[in-house]
Amino acid sequence: MMIVRHAHGETRTSFSVININNFQSVQEQNLVRAMELVDRSMEVYFSADRQAMYRFYNPDTKVRPEEKASVWMYSASIEAVNAILSGLRLQKEKGNHGLFDKHYKRYVDLLAQLHENAAYYLGKFNLISFTQTKDWTVYAVDRAREKGEANATGILNVYDDQMWMIRELIEAYHLTGKDTYLKEAEYLTAYVLDGWDCTRNDQGNENGGIPWGPGYVTKHACSNAPMVSPLVWLHEIYKKKKDQITYNYIDAKDKQSRRSKMIRKSDFYLDFAKRIYAWQKDHLLNNKGVYDDMMGDCYPDCSIAYEIVDGVKYRKNTQLRKAVGTSFSYNSGTMISGAADLYRATRSKIYLEEGKELANASFRYFARPDSQVSAHYTYASDGFNNWFNGVLLRGFLQISPVFEKAGSYMDTFQQNLDYGYSHFLRSGLLPQDLLGGWHADKDKNNLEGMFMFAYAAQYAMLSQYEAGG
User: Which GO terms describe its biological process (predicted)?
Assistant: First the structure.
């Protein structure tokens, strides 16, 4: 472990650009707090050269254990920086050039640095999928000592990790215009969609769904819904272009022969967005109106099965007999986002209505009134729920332009963040429990770095909402 020492106030961070008592607006305060949290987190969770992110830091003991962050945790830093850049650009559009001029470039540079060092998680492996055998270079769960040398075989890479990176890469492309971000996003998208179960059932329909990873058979909400919005965004990027892409599939008549054809990218991406959204809704929406964790109960077992067709080995479908697991907030949040984006792209009112219903059901299910602090709503903060809840907030933000009530749900996040900031800010960091504060035993206040970046992203998203973004 390492002792991290930085000169920093123990009860309130300072921000050299703006006096905290002289904010012009709530959205500006939110954005400044997002930047404070990111800047402080870069100090204590990253190595001095910013090449490695550590998982934990204790603001009381100043101890940072040696455990490195997984790629999922690392992607939270990129998410926070992208959210800040979006907020800064919106501030400029609203006429506030001060924050933009002073900070935009340094966060664009930080984004580039974070992306460059994400390569420590990249690794190569060979995959037999439902339609082909191919070598891929993708993000592994764990970091390697050298760039591009991570172990990505078997269960050591998962599709949802790629999806979170795809989301941020497309956002980075929109913010910077750099084609390198878009190129990588599309490469990883091809990898993820290669995991789609295109095997046919007795009726000739696709079984559908994407397993958690190439080493798993269970199909999770987190390895499907996060891909809906990025696919819509890719559709919109190529909507007015004639670019084509190879579409691999299985013949619907003989239910075995592997086929391929060239189709327009814009059509390909939108069609897959619709299919993934429909699969998750059909299989994982429960009677509470929110989403279960995954399709499980594998039959005959949960081992990966293969079949030989025309002398070639392919992955085979494994029957999954029921939806199981906990309902986590992010698995509904991604579907709210997906519904909002599909509605924008298609103008089909069914997506709007389903998005509204899910937003209402999610707030009822995940927000508990007055359970810790009067007039505040508690969201679960154990496990990884702080990050999960940020995905739900994103869903509320994305549907808010067409569903005004979502704004009141977002207000509860604003209340909780502000409560934690006012009552519990310590050494520039916020506790895992925003309404309950710190553990009395200082040795038990190890904080997940991804949570600090999640809080920063939430503040930045709230800034966008308050500014009318």
Answer: carbohydrate metabolic process
